[in-house]
Amino acid sequence: MYETIATQTKEKVHTGLAGIDSSKLKALRSDHLKACFSLIDEMRHKLEFVARIKGVSFIDDAASRSPMTTWYALETVEGRVVWIANGANSMQRASEYRRLRALAESKVERIICLGNKALYQTIFGDVVKDITEVNTMAEAVTKAFYGCEENMKVLFSPSYENGISYEEQGESFKHEVNEL
Question: What does CATH list as the number for 48-179?
């Protein structure tokens, strides 16, 4: 279901939500509404604003562990982006990453890979001017911050499983941002 939603444009998703029959919403019991809205609080590490430092906004999207969820994040974030991603050297999912090319070309200023940059270099090397490989989250956040101009966004959206839980990576990202 989420991949289906992720492939829709923001306008289609918003139009669909706006078109929900209000009589059906009124028929819901308040307990049901509370349960639905409580899920929002549990969505840590999904397009979560972390901080704005010297005009640069940091967004934690550590829960995005596939190219399609990263596609949605890139589509949602407005403005120029420095994208921090998990490194990958396997070309098995190259076709999925190719779907990100148009967004990368129009929005992504730089890609910083935590680990091997081979996949990103192959897919995005001709549309993103700078693709860097780093070893630690501290290095990634520092390079992202000092490579940004005012009003740019730093988006941590891994798009690839690396064996470290998204919670751990998200908390590491937030910690390093707060250390700047």
Answer: 3.90.190.20
